[in-house]
Every structure is written in structure tokens, then in C-alpha cells.
Design a protein that fits this description.
By secondary structure, this protein is α+β, with helices and mostly antiparallel strands. The protein has helices at 2-8, 11-20, 27-31, 38-50, 69-83, 87-94; strands spanning 25-26, 54-59, 62-67. InterPro entries: ArsR-like_HTH, HTH_ArsR_DNA-bd_dom, HTH_MetalResp_TranReg, WH-like_DNA-bd_sf, WH_DNA-bd_sf.
């Protein structure tokens, strides 16, 4: 969970995720939308990949990047369940303790 939130702490990484929300892009297409070096782009993509938010696939001479949408949704849900005041009763109910 920490890796996801660390990845989301960066504005450029959030922008990359927003671009990928419309569909996969090549690394070059992503890089063309930003004013930073190829090593910086590679670093941002590495952080997103290590957090499980994106997947990269090499096809021919291009690297295609796509979202892993369930990873972000599941992480945010898990975090919300931890901080939500009703999370305790929901967790007990899920374990079979029933609603109280």
C-alpha cells in the first residue's frame, strides 16, 4: 500500500496515470507530453510499475505502457476501510461475526 501512495505523491506520475486512463501508450508517447529527460521518465515509470499501477510490454522496438486499474482501486478501498469509522463492524461482519 505504501508504494502506491508514494507513487501517487508525484504530480507527473499522477498525470501519467491520467493519460493512461484513456488507453495504453508507448513510452515515447508519454515522454512527448512532458518536459523531462528520458532517464527521468524511466524513473517515473519504474516507480509506477513497482507500485503495481502500470504494466510495461516490449513489442518490437516500442515499449507499451498500460494501467492496472484494479490495483489502484483495491489499494484506495483498503486504505478507506482502515480509516473509515464503520470499517470495524464491516470487518467483523465479513468474518462472520454479524452486524451489531
Amino acid at each position: 500500500m505504501e508504494r502506491v501512495f508514494e507513487a501517487l505523491a508525484s504530480t507527473p506520475r499522477r498525470q501519467i496515470l491520467a493519460y493512461l486512463n484513456a488507453g495504453e501508450l508507448t513510452a515515447g508517447e508519454i515522454g512527448a507530453r512532458f518536459d523531462f529527460s528520458k532517464p527521468a521518465l524511466s524513473g517515473h515509470l519504474r516507480v509506477l510499475e513497482q507500485a503495481g499501477l502500470i504494466e510495461r510490454e516490449k513489442r518490437g522496438q516500442f515499449v507499451y505502457v498500460r494501467l492496472v486499474p484494479d490495483r489502484l482501486a483495491n489499494t484506495v478501498f483498503a486504505w478507506a476501510a482502515e480509516v473509515c469509522p464503520v470499517a470495524g463492524p464491516l470487518k467483523r461482519e465479513r468474518r462472520g461475526g454479524g452486524a451489531r
